[in-house]
Amino acid sequence: MTVPVLTSPDQVASTPLRVLICDEMNPGDLHHEGFEIDYEGNLPREETLRRLPEYDALITRSRTKVDRELLAAAGERLRVIGRGGVGVDNIDLEACSRRGILVLNAPESNNVSAAELAIMHLLAAARGLTRSDRKTRAGEWDRKFLGVELKDKTLGIVGLGRIGSIVADRAQGLRLKVVAFDPYVPENKFERLGVERAASLDELLTQVDFLTVHTPLTGETQGMIGTRELALLRPGSIVVNAARGGIVEEAALVEALKSGHLFGAGVDVFVEEPPTPDHPFLGAPNLGITAHLGANTFEAQERVGAEIVGRVLAALHGDVSRGAVNAPALDARTLELLGGHLDLGEKLGRILAQLLPGAHDLEVTFRGEFAADPAPIVTAALVGYLSGSTDERPNMINARALAKERGLNLAVREEQDSPDYQTEVVVKVTGGAQGEKQRTRTVGGTVFGRSPRLTRLRDYRVELAPEGFILIASNQDRPGAVAKLSNLLGTWGINIAGMALGRAQKGGQALFTLTLDDGLTPEQLQAIRDLDVIDSAFLVRV
Ligand SMILES: NC(=O)c1ccc[n+]([C@@H]2O[C@H](COP(=O)([O-])OP(=O)(O)OC[C@H]3O[C@@H](n4cnc5c(N)ncnc54)[C@H](O)[C@@H]3O)[C@@H](O)[C@H]2O)c1
Ligand SMILES: O=C(O)[C@H](O)COP(=O)(O)O
């Protein structure tokens, strides 16, 4: 795979490349040959916008919103944006990609500090720190308050990534039992960390005394802890959010504190930062607040500065192997030859991520003759399999490294013969706890012209355009099943865009796959599962 060379060596030698750091960090040594780095700390936004056209790269933290306005102000010169930290939700990645701007982050540098802050919030809430501090300052010597011990209690972690894992380790040091919910992480990571795996979020919530969230803010995690979820927690629980504002719904959290259902809470992050003076958090009882300080330690900012400056300078020299968040980068010729297959690989990966997340093995089989080295199709399948579960936005540059970090083993097989199609790509994932029965899921596809087609789902042959929503239903092969299902979809006004039937043998288990123009509500999916002619049904989004 070829990555874009952002700057030719001649250019580097003749004109210094200019980098603007507009947010506060410890940028370390600013003298690097061939570069001019301006560190401005908290540069006012209008100044950033005014000066940006003179720079090749911009380095920010979460304070600076990299939106369309900023990109428009930047003009043509800006080619790299470095985020000194993990979360890139302040950056419009789509707009950056469209303008050909590479976005990098520094996800390794501040995770210890963020994890320690989460533990601090847990302890502070358990012992009523903010309440006692406020009262004592106001002249009230209140020694009646009774806190709770952490020892022998259970901590629930949502998101067992870099920070969640460190929190688990520190919590075990405090003699807490740790249970986590993270469907995207393989079993061996739970085993290595000595953390019990919860099969679902609800299962986690009902068995913990304390809850802390450490996921990125995605469509799936936004509001994932709301009124219903908080009610599932035991009375007297404590909730911590040092990840992103809105993962725990703000109004629901305030309500649960006011009603006394929660003993306390700690937050480091808000939906809108800084919060307005009338924000309901500010009057909520036993709620410890910090001003998005998770990464604010001397140590973290020293590491963040060195890491992001190093990555940005390397990228300006054409090395985008570390920290790339956006921009799949293949040369035009490979894209031309493999384009449809890359799209296919990503779609197969995305389908498998929904059928069997958290796998430990992913195997890709290539059948037939491909117009170019098919290796990038493996990367595309990884992009699809890993997307939606990490802040790092898997792409063609970082997907293999992310897979390695997650303990996802890769295998590739090539078969010369492709009996049914000119080429076929089959992707199989395997997951499950060590010593337990392993589950596998297989999907396959081919390309007609430049359009991907599904050719195989589990052990069944299908032929379907993988688009929109795919309903996968299995039943005993007998008359009437399709009619009952399509009638039901018809009563909900849901249009069937395509359909494929497959069966292992006459009268045996059959699988039908329908592509739908719209999704289904959980109730509609349940109604399908309840049909007497259906054994199981899943909906995947491609
Ligand atoms: N407060 C701060 O200053 C501060 C500092 C650093 C990071 N952060 C935030 O902390 C969060 C975690 O960072 P990280 O570096 O550990 O990220 P990470 O990508 O290493 O880990 C995130 C984990 O969340 C899991 N996940 C994703 N979607 C999920 C879902 N729907 N349900 C359960 N688990 C899910 C992923 O599988 C992954 O293991 C991010 O939101 C980041 O922005 C905050
Ligand atoms: O995502 C992150 O890295 C943290 O939220 C830290 O953000 P900050 O660099 O703006 O403190």
UniProtKB/TrEMBL annotation:
Gene3D superfamilies: 3.30.70.260, D-3-phosphoglycerate dehydrogenase, domain 3, NAD(P)-binding Rossmann-like Domain. Keywords: Amino-acid biosynthesis, NAD, Oxidoreductase, Serine biosynthesis. It is an enzyme of class 1 (oxidoreductase). Residues 470-542 form the ACT domain. Its EC number is 1.1.1.95. Transmembrane segments: none annotated. InterPro entries: ACT-like_dom_sf, ACT_dom, ASB_dom_sf, D-isomer_2_OHA_DH_cat_dom, D-isomer_DH_CS, D-isomer_DH_CS1, D-isomer_DH_NAD-bd, NAD(P)-bd_dom_sf. Pathway: Amino-acid biosynthesis; L-serine biosynthesis; L-serine from 3-phospho-D-glycerate: step 1/3. CDD domains: ACT_3PGDH-xct, PGDH_4. Catalyzes the reversible oxidation of 3-phospho-D-glycerate to 3-phosphonooxypyruvate, the first step of the phosphorylated L-serine biosynthesis pathway. Also catalyzes the reversible oxidation of 2-hydroxyglutarate to 2-oxoglutarate. Belongs to the D-isomer specific 2-hydroxyacid dehydrogenase family. This is D-3-phosphoglycerate dehydrogenase. The lineage of its organism: Bacteria, Thermotogati, Deinococcota, Deinococci, Deinococcales. The gene is serA.
